[in-house]
Amino acid sequence: MIRNATRLAAVVLGTGLIWAAASYHAPQAQAPAGNVVAFTGATVIDGTGAAPMAGATIVVADGRIQAVGRNVAVPAGAMRVDMSGKFITPGLVNAHGHLQADSSKRPARDRLTAQLRMYADYGITTVQVLGLPLDDVPDGIKLRDESRPGAGGSLDRARVLIAAASLRNLKTEQEARDWANKYADLKVDIIKMHITGSPMDMTPTVYGALIDQAHKRGIRAAAHMLYLKDAKGLLDQGIAASHIALAGDSCGANLAITTMLRGLGATYDFDPRLVIPDESKSLFGGAIALWARGDRKLVKDAGLVLQQ
Predict the structure, then answer these.
(1) Integer Cα distance of 255 and 303 in angstroms
(2) CATH match for 2-90 among 2.60.40, 2.30.40, 1.10.3470, 1.10.10
């Protein structure tokens, strides 16, 4: 019955809201003409920092929120859903996710759909997949297109944005441009690369060509990086998004690099789960060591976004 709850939640997913549905049973009635649904008696947390609003009503028409508040009039004929004791919050956007947990031999569409439904079950309404195996990309792109607003039909899973398998160790500018064109022809949303400090890494000239060609095809580029020098080089070449895994370089770089990322409009995340043998040599060593000890002040001051 929880699956039924998620399917009804699809109406709300399109509006950017979700609710805790662990004990919620979807009503059996069909939505009325005009697809107007009123969720009543909920506690709404709107994500602005305002206090939770108890006893609120949300009116949704044709997949869009029309009104939110304690004194909202419910339109005549609207389907009412009693949300007493439930919480409604903004949907979460996962800016760096993957769809490779299911390694079975099932068809790609079945595997990907099931994982996107799992994201939705946990309140994630959109996931940007930074690295999907090439064989799965065509089905991933179809699922993305089907989930776009205005595509029609109901949606019982998270929306998705797709990057194909991360590019590594390309040797020439032409090879980089050829891969960018190949991925663009697949209609991906973003092109990802790995720059890990290895002697086999793409040189700045090569990854610069990859980023440039991606931009020429109207696609953003993202990088998985470890070192400050690579972060600077990638930013100089116009990288749009970064995943920062921790490795050597001065921990004094933490504020400098986050300032660069924010100032250039790049988005970023970094992974605090890695073991850091020598925090003085890690890119965000000082910040992450303090975070691990439960002191978030330095992390907050640095403007960092933590994955947990």
Answers:
(1) 8
(2) 2.30.40
